[in-house]
Amino acid sequence: MLGIDVEWDDEKNGEVIMGITRSTVRVGQKPTKEQLKQIREIAKRPIHYTEDCPESTPEALAEFAAMARSRRKRKVKPVVALRVEPEALEKYKALGSGYTGIMADVLNYVADNPEILSKSQAISSVE
Questions:
Q1: Interior CA angle at 116 toward 113 and 121, to 5°?
Q2: Which of 59-63, 80-84, 107-111, 119-123 shows the lowest per-residue confidence on average (mean pLDDT)?
Q3: Nearest 5°: CA angle at 79, between 78 and 84?
Q4: Can you give the residue ranges of every domain in the chain?
Q5: How far is 15 from 45, CA to CA, in rounded Å?
Q6: 95-101: which pairs have CB atoms within 8 A and are 24 or more residues apart?
Q7: What is the per-residue pLDDT across 56-103, written as a single tens digit (0 to 9) for each?
Q8: I need a surface site. Which of 8, 9, 32, 125 has the fewest CB within 10 A?
Q9: In this structure, what are the phi and psi dihedrals at residue 2, rounded to the nearest 5 degrees?
Q10: Residues 6+ apart with CB under 8 A from 10
Q11: Is residue 43 within 8 Å of 18, Cβ to Cβ?
């Protein structure tokens, strides 16, 4: 789920009016025409810098870019071939789009909770 918060301000009669527009877009969902229209309209408005929110310096922008590159490197996930039972794969596929992410979450959960593995090994030794 992606939350879109857009802050805006207008000057009317010499008074600055500020607000926040909130929209929610779920994974796999496209923004509505109304949401796209709203984003385009707000993007046309001028940016008013304040003491609390000054314009970013080139140095700060370079630092943000370096942080973003670093995060992207950490987010890159290796592709792995994994053999699973056909029935298990069908169950995951039945969950719909994003099922591979769910499989990864399950694997991470088990890796973070090794006691689950010991229970699983005890069950398979009984069978």
A1: 140
A2: 119-123
A3: 130
A4: 2-74, 78-126
A5: 16
A6: 97/27, 97/28, 98/27, 98/28
A7: 899 999 999 999 888 888 777 888 898 999 999 999 999 998 899 899
A8: 125
A9: -120, 120
A10: 16, 17, 45
A11: no
Distance between CA atoms of residues 106 and 121, nearest Å: 17
DSSP the chain: -EEEEEEEEEEETTEEEEEEEEEEE-TTPPPPHHHHHHHHHHHTSPP---SSSPPPPHHHHHHHHHHHHHHHHHH----------HHHHHHHHTT-TTHHHHHHHHHHHHHH-HHHHHHHHHHHHH-
The model's confidence at residue 1, banded by pLDDT at 50, 70 and 90, is very low
User: What type of residue sits at position 30?
Assistant: K
Number of alpha carbons in the 13 Å side-chain half-sphere of residue 118: 4
CA 102 to each of CA 57, 59, 76, 84: distance values in angstroms, whole numbers, following the listed order = 40, 39, 17, 14
Q: Which residue has the tokens 């796999």?
A: 28
